[in-house]
Amino acid sequence: MILSAQLGCQQLSKRESSVQKNGLHYWSAKIEFINKLKNNRQSGLAKIYIQGEDHLRMDIMDPFGFVKIGSVVVNKNQAKVNFLKQTPYEGPVYDEMLSDMLKVNITVKDFFSLFTQNDFSKKNWKCDKSSSEAPHSCTHLDQEITISWSGSMKNVGALCTVNHSRADISLKVKDYRLIEEKRDSLFSL
Hints:
The protein is of the alpha+beta class. The chain is built from three helices and eleven strands. It has a single domain (23-187), classed as outer membrane lipoprotein receptor (LolB), chain A, CATH 2.50.20.10. An eleven-stranded antiparallel sheet has the order 6-5-4-3-2-1-11-10-9-8-7. A hairpin with a 3-residue loop joins strand 2 and strand 3 (55-61).
């Protein structure tokens, strides 16, 4: 009976791990963008969906959540970026795809990592973290980018800041949910 309970816990743990990795992660966040080149500040609401390591949808709304300012959709190797006052893009994912929009030289993979707080230990990043925790800050070794977190991005109130010579971005988590079922329609281009 004890062996059966242990096997059941192991299977549940594997299932939970699979859901964590492949499930649909949803964040609602307050976003603030400071363009240092134009000396202006914009704020809004962001809804972010991430599934696995290659599906992302981010919709940016005005501060009241009524007017859609833009969206980014990544579906494996294809992407669609559409923001007001910018030329829309639809085509293959490439590393600098988000740079024009965000004014920060950050790759799509690193953008995913802003929310998941993992994979920053790869080359070109130096992260400050203990072995069991998510990083507190990461600095890109070739670019002028520093990313810092005040807690896990899965906690309401957590703050992620991205500092770059051209712009600063802050995301404050208002809501986080892990949704078990897949919603492929979210990532259609």
